[in-house]
Design a protein that fits this description.
It is a single chain. The chain is about 40% helix and about 30% strand. It has three helices and four strands, in the order E-H-E-E-H-E-H. The protein is globular and about 40 Å long. The termini are close together. Keywords: Monooxygenase, Oxidoreductase. This is Monooxygenase. One of its GO terms (molecular function) is monooxygenase activity.
């Protein structure tokens, strides 16, 4: 079953176009992760938070990515990583034009 992974964490920047420039190579590597269908990057400069909403083909792929990404963030000095996993209800999501496959 498709799975949504929601991650957010404290982040002091860069944001907006500067984030785009700084994180482009990371984004290009993330899309190659096994089971990843898409990611929406999230940012909030006023609260100094960043993260993402990910759609994975299955829960195990989402769990694997979460473990790897949490380790990568921790190694970069990020603390207070918050993550949640959700099963996707495809029929209801399709009614509401959710970008699922």
């Amino acid at each position: 079953m498709q799975t949504i992974l929601q991650i957010d964490f404290p982040f002091v920047g860069p944001f907006a176009e500067e984030m785009h420039q700084a994180m482009q190579a990371l984004a290009e590597s993330i899309i190659e992760e096994p089971g990843l269908i898409w990611k929406i990057w999230t940012e909030n400069p006023s609260t100094q938070e960043a993260g993402g909403i990910y759609l994975f083909s299955d829960e195990q792929s989402a769990q694997n990515y979460l473990a790897m990404h949490s380790a990568r963030l921790t190694a970069s000095g990020v603390t207070d990583i918050r993550a949640k996993l959700f099963a996707v209800n495809a029929p209801l999501s399709q009614i509401c034009q959710g970008p699922i496959q």
